[in-house]
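Residues pack. One example:


***
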Amino acid sequence: MKTIAFTGMPFSGKSEAVKIAKEQSIPVIRMGDMIWEETKAQGFKINDSNVGKIATDMRKTHGMSIWAQKTYEKIKTIKDMRLLVIDGVRNIEEVEFFKENLGEDFILVAVKVEDSLRHNRALSRGRADDSMDINLIKERDKRELSWGLAEVIDLADITILNDGSIEKFCEKIKKVFKDL
C-alpha cells in the first residue's frame, strides 16, 4: 500500500488535499484526530491552545514520534487498500518512524504557500482548533516550527505550491494521486 503523507505549515492547504483524497475514496488518517481524541480524553475543550499543549506535552513525555506511532496503529487496521493518505506530519522523528515502518511506499508531500496568504486563509477557515487572532496564528506557526516542521517540509519527496486558485491546487493534488 502506498502511503502519501501531507506536511506543511498550518493553513497551507493540507485539509483541502485531504478533502480531495476523500472525494476519490482514498482512505485518510488525520494525525490531528489522535491529538483531538487525547485532548478530549484529558477533559479539555478542542481549541488551538489545548490541542497545542497536549500535542507538545505528549511529545515531551512519549517522544517526538508519538503521534506517528498512534497513526501507524490505525494504518495497520486498514486492509486491501492501494493508496492511503496521512494528514499532518510535523517532525523528522515522525518521518523516520513512517519510513522505518512503511518503507519506500511512504511518500512525503509538502504543501507550500507564502505566509501572508496562509494567514489570510487562517482567518477565514473556522475549524474548531483555529484561532481568529493573527498573533495567535503566528504563535501556532512558531510552536509547529519548534517541533521541526521546516525540516520536514524541506525533506519532502514532492512539493506542491499552493499560491493560485483552489481549482489549480486541486488539479495538482489529483495529479499526485493519479501518478501514484
Remarks:
- The beta strands are 2-7, 28-30, 83-87, 106-112, 158-161.
- The CA atoms of residues 108 and 155 lie 8 Å apart.
- The chain has one domain: 2-175.
